[in-house]
């Protein structure tokens, strides 16, 4: 795929926009409904995930489906530091979820897709 912005919580409230991810919260995204042309039968995504606008240190876990999040971390961040990381993340039923593991507050999440796997 041509790199495409799938999620940006800095945007207006919506299925792929705001609000920012609150601490301890999980948001799920049905990626085939997004603007990037990912087919419903995709099994994984090649992504770049960026965090910004946070007031507490923490981490995000991106995981397939909407069940229980694993204990792994996709990206860690320090207070006030915008960070980015590449990852290949699985999908379950076309759904990608993000769990905020920061201590307090909220964090803006940006997910850019550069490819998918069937």
Descriptive notes:
There is one protein chain. By secondary structure, this protein is an all-beta fold. 0% of the residues lie in helices and 48% in strands. The protein is built from no helices and 9 strands. The strands form 2 sheets. Strands 1, 2, 4, 7 and 9 form a 5-stranded antiparallel beta sheet that branches. The protein has a 4-stranded antiparallel beta sheet with strand order 3-8-5-6, with no helix packed on it. The mean pLDDT is 95.
- Strand content range: over 45%
- Described by the principal axes of the CA atoms, the overall outline is globular
Helix coverage percent: under 10%
Total beta-strand segments: 9
Count of helix runs: 0
The string of secondary-structure elements, in order, is: EEEEEEEEE
Distance between the termini: 13 Å
* Main beta sheet strand tally, sense and closure: 5 strands, antiparallel
Q: Structural class, from secondary structure content? A: mainly beta
Query: What are the segments in which pLDDT stays under 50 over at least 5 consecutive residues?
Result: none
Q: What is the C-alpha radius of gyration, as a whole number of Å? A: 13 Å
Mean of all residue-level pLDDT scores:
95
């Amino acid at each position: 795929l041509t790199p495409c912005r799938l999620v940006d919580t800095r945007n207006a409230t919506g299925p792929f926009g705001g609000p920012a991810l609150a601490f301890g919260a999980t948001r799920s995204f049905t990626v085939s409904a997004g603007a990037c042309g990912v087919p419903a039968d995709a099994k994984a995504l090649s992504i770049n995930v960026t965090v910004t606008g946070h007031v507490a240190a923490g981490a995000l876990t991106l995981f397939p489906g909407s069940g229980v999040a694993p204990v792994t971390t996709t990206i860690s961040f320090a207070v006030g530091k915008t960070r980015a990381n590449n990852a290949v993340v699985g999908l379950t039923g076309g759904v990608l979820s993000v769990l905020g593991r920061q201590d307090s507050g909220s964090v803006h999440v940006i997910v850019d897709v550069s490819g998918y796997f069937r």
